[in-house]
Design goal:
Elements lengths: L9 H8 L15 H11 L11 E6 L2 H11 L4 H4 L2 E8 L8 H19 L3 E5 L5 H8 L5 E10 L62 H11 L18 H6 L11 E5 L5 H9 L5 E6 L2 H13 L7 E5 L12 E7 L8 H11 E12 L4 H8 L17 H11 E9 L9 E2 L9 E8 L5
Helix pairs in contact: 2-5
Length: 451
């Protein structure tokens, strides 16, 4: 007679495994090679398709090679700081179409992450590893093997965010016997009879729906609220080289604020890059409210602000209900909506809300990516052919259309056109030329009632 196995410690073990979090801020200290080899050995206890084990793991612990790997990857500075990178590779050609070998490597990777976690180390899996040709040369990887990603392992810095990215409620991601899923978690795609997998890539997705008017507010909130956690909320994340100094020029549109505790609202900032710059410009005593569609965005932005050195005593996060701002009529001194109208399912509904909450002498500072510009054409023929970015669906708006929307509700005090394309420049044009630059920005005051 077989004695039942004792699984009484399973809840404790599973709870410990669930505390694993992704880390991008490592102490540059070494991990013994026998420990790294043991982590890989734990990983290959994962199942492998047909038991062929057509995987290979290149462990990089050499400082110069890690620096080169960082440069190839581009936006992953932690590649140089971690104790080791483990490149996840597979031999091409085995059950290729249904990704059996890819799934095998993914299973091994997670096994390694749990092994590292139980040994007191942190880790993060990275799909963004850069140009494969350069990487092959660096690693001596033959053409028959494909790099799938890289696992960074190391000891987290004392200051590293020990925050686990939010997980969806289990009720949203499982169903019984047939597919059922809440509508707000189903993202739009352009109508088509079929969506062939191999017709879709990051750079060319003919089914991607970039137009936010085809999305509901709840869908946009859901998308942004999870994807913002694609990175840890470290200082300097989501800072765009293409944007350059343009954020400062957008914020230059902000007029003087009243003396005393001015109430300022930053609308839909996503990762908080502009929020950081705005907060540091506000006079002492000013109160800043960060208005976002999802509490997950707010938790990220508040952690980000703290790590950017922004005092949080006068900063609060508030959740929008669609376009509605949770403030009383005529209670706000300034609303900042920087490059947000183009993300909204109904921008005019939001502008009505902005006018409602602003005091008679309040101000709206708004900017948009301008469809009537060289950048707009580049976006249409290039960027928009790919997948929807992490900040959610957006479509650049013609400057004149935005100006017409503003003129219906506000008195436009100042206009500016910022830069031509995404080269990081941020020079400012005024007058008619402002309508043809990459960014169109304006400062407005509420128009008299009845206008």
């Amino acid at each position: 007679m077989t004695t039942p196995a004792d699984f009484s410690d399973a809840p404790e073990i599973l709870a410990r495994l669930a505390t694993r979090f992704s880390c991008r801020d490592f102490e540059p200290v070494a991990i013994a090679r026998d420990t790294l080899a043991a982590i890989v050995a734990d990983g290959v206890q994962a199942p492998s398709s047909c038991n062929q084990q057509q995987w290979h793991f290149v462990i990089v612990d050499d400082k110069a090679t890690k620096l080169a790997a960082r440069d190839i990857a581009g936006g992953n500075p932690h590649f140089a700081e971690c104790s080791a990178l483990i490149y996840l590779c597979f031999q091409k050609g085995w059950t290729h179409n249904n990704f059996s070998v890819v799934q095998s490597v993914a299973g091994a990777c997670y096994h390694m992450m749990l092994s590292a976690h139980l040994r007191g180390y942190s880790s993060i899996w990275n799909a963004g590893i850069g140009d494969h040709k350069r990487l092959r040369a660096l690693l001596g990887l033959p053409e028959t093997f494909e790099p799938q990603g890289a696992l960074a392992i190391g000891a987290p810095r004392e200051t590293a965010p020990r925050v686990k990215a939010p997980r969806r409620p289990v009720s949203e991601i499982h169903s019984w016997n047939r597919f059922e899923r809440p509508a707000h978690t189903l993202y739009p795609a352009k109508p088509a009879p079929f969506y062939p997998f191999f017709d879709i890539s990051n750079e060319n997705n003919p089914f991607a729906e970039w137009d936010p008017t085809c999305w509901t507010w709840d869908q946009v909130a859901d998308f942004r609220g999870y994807s913002v956690w694609a990175k840890s909320p470290l200082a300097g994340v989501y800072v765009s080289r293409r944007q350059g100094d343009a954020t400062e020029r957008e914020l230059d549109m902000l007029g003087p604020l009243p003396s005393g505790p001015a109430n300022v609202v930053d609308v839909m900032p996503w990762g908080g890059t502009a929020t950081t710059r705005l907060a540091l410009r506000l006079p002492a005593g000013a109160r800043l409210s960060v208005a976002e569609l999802s509490p997950h965005n707010l938790s990220f932005v508040m952690e980000r602000l703290a790590r950017e050195g922004v005092p949080l005593a006068n900063v609060a996060g508030v959740t929008m209900d669609g376009p509605r701002l949770p403030f009383d009529d005529a209670s706000v001194d300034a609303v900042a909506a920087l490059q947000t109208l183009e993300h909204m399912p109904d921008p005019e509904a939001f502008l009505d809300e902005a006018r409602r909450v602003l005091r008679p002498d309040g101000q709206l500072v708004v900017s948009v990516r301008n469809r009537s510009s060289d950048y707009g054409d580049e976006w249409s023929h290039g960027e928009a052919r790919g997948q929807v970015p992490n900040q959610g669906p957006f479509t650049p708006l013609p400057a004149q259309r935005v100006r017409d929307w503003l003129a219906k509700r506000f008195t436009i005090e100042a206009e500016a056109g910022i830069a031509v394309d995404g080269d990081g420049s941020a020079y400012v044009e005024t007058g008619e030329a402002s309508h043809s630059r990459r960014l169109y920005a304006a400062r407005c005051r509420p128009a008299p009632t009845g206008r």
